[in-house]
Amino acid sequence: MNAFGLFLGMKHVSAVIEENGNGSIVNIASFTAQISMGLNTYSASKGSVSAISKAAATAFGKFDVHVHALFPGIIETLMTAVLKDWAVYVEAIV
């Protein structure tokens, strides 16, 4: 899903939350939104999740809809296996 689709999805969810009186939207970004680590495309997409969450929080806050973005750290996966010395990156963010 691209950033525009994410925003539209939040728009529809926020309407349901607004009808109920209040609520929260939680988006999952990544700490790579702030530190690229050589995963440039992934980092850019997660940076857009961060930015769109801020924009949505501003737009939907007046309706008592809270928008949050979580930034989990690195997890050993096939994607991160290509990173040499990934432990150095973990130390950089801790």
Structural class call reads alpha+beta
Tell me the strand order in the biggest sheet: 1-2
Q: Segments where pLDDT lies below 50 for 5+ residues?
A: none
Radius of gyration: 16 Å
Largest sheet at a glance?
2 strands, parallel
End-to-end gap: 30 Å
Note the run of SSEs as H and E.
Answer: HEHEH
The count of DSSP E runs of length 2 or more, i.e. the number of strands, is 2
Shape: elongated
Helix content: 40-55%
Task: Please give a structural write-up.
Helix 2 links the parallel strand 1 (23-28) and strand 2. Helices cover 50% and strands 13% of the residues. The chain has three helices and two strands. Strands 1-2 form a two-stranded parallel ribbon. Helix 1 (3-20) packs parallel to helix 2. The model has no long low-confidence stretch (mean pLDDT 77). With 94 residues, the chain is of the alpha+beta class. The longest helix has 21 residues, at 40-60. It has helices at residues 3-20, 40-60, 86-93, and strands at residues 23-28, 65-70. 15% of the residues are buried.
List keywords for this structure.
94 residues; alpha+beta; elongated; 13% strand
Summarize the structure.
With 94 residues, the chain is an alpha+beta fold. It has three helices and two strands, in the order H-E-H-E-H.
Write the layout of secondary structure elements.
Layout: H1 3-20, E1 23-28, H2 40-60, E2 65-70, H3 86-93
Parallel strand pairs: 1-2
Helix pairs in contact: 1-2
